[in-house]
Specification:
Helix content is 57%, strand content 0%. The protein is mostly helical. Belongs to the Nth/MutY family.
């Protein structure tokens, strides 16, 4: 895929959705970090329901620590793997209070030092909370990048590096949101909705499916 085609792809995605963002509900970097930590193997809808119960009660690291592990689990028990997630969140809150003044750090190294925070989560926080041009490659972005040939790669790190290299600079900040949403609602895993795709004529997927 050449640069001109990539530029047109992201131009159309921007035209279709000028202000993309995460579907997780959040209002502070800590709320976003909490929501992303809870979102592994869970839907955004399910996480939002849990955080709607949790955040009015505790939405800062110190408040979570004061809430206690058992009460935290009670608030998020509708989410899969909630026991492990609750323990990681408590450990993360303690580190944030003791090392970062209760604030979420804005560097990759500090974020990835937090329990339960890997490269993808760090990228989401850096991009969405702090406006840095990172690329959080999840299963949707991995699929779309390979299927369309925007940035084919054998693993998520390879796809991430290719996207950072090939996505035109003016689109970098919002690119991962566009790709996630495209993979979630149009370029779906089993049977992509090629007939209703705004970039169908630019996509290099050889097995296009003509459905809306």
């Amino acid at each position: 895929m050449n640069a001109q085609k990539r530029y047109e792809i992201f131009s159309r995605l921007r035209e279709h959705n000028p202000n993309p963002t995460t579907e997780l509900d959040w209002s502070t970097p800590f709320e976003l970090l909490t929501a992303v930590l809870l979102s592994a193997q869970a839907t955004d809808v399910g996480v939002n329901k849990a955080t709607a119960r949790l955040f009015p009660v505790a939405n800062t690291p110190q408040a979570i620590l004061d809430l206690g592990l058992d009460a935290l689990k009670e608030h998020i028990k509708t989410i899969g793997l909630y026991n492990t997630k609750a323990e990681n969140l408590m450990k993360t809150c303690r580190i944030l209070v003791e090392r970062h003044g209760g604030e979420v750090p804005d560097t990759r190294a500090d974020l990835e030092a937090l329990p339960g925070v890997g490269r993808k989560t760090a990228n989401v926080i850096l991009n969405t909370a702090f406006g840095q041009p990172t690329m959080a490659v999840d299963t949707h972005i991995f699929r779309v990048s390979n299927r369309t040939r925007i940035a084919p790669g054998k693993n998520v790190v390879e796809v991430e590096q290719k996207l950072l290299r090939h996505v035109p600079k003016e689109f970098l900040h919002d690119a991962h949101h566009w790709l996630i949403l495209h993979g979630r609602y149009t370029c779906v895993a089993r049977r992509p909705r090629c007939g209703s795709c705004v970039i169908e004529d630019l996509c290099e997927y050889k097995e296009k499916v003509d459905i809306g």
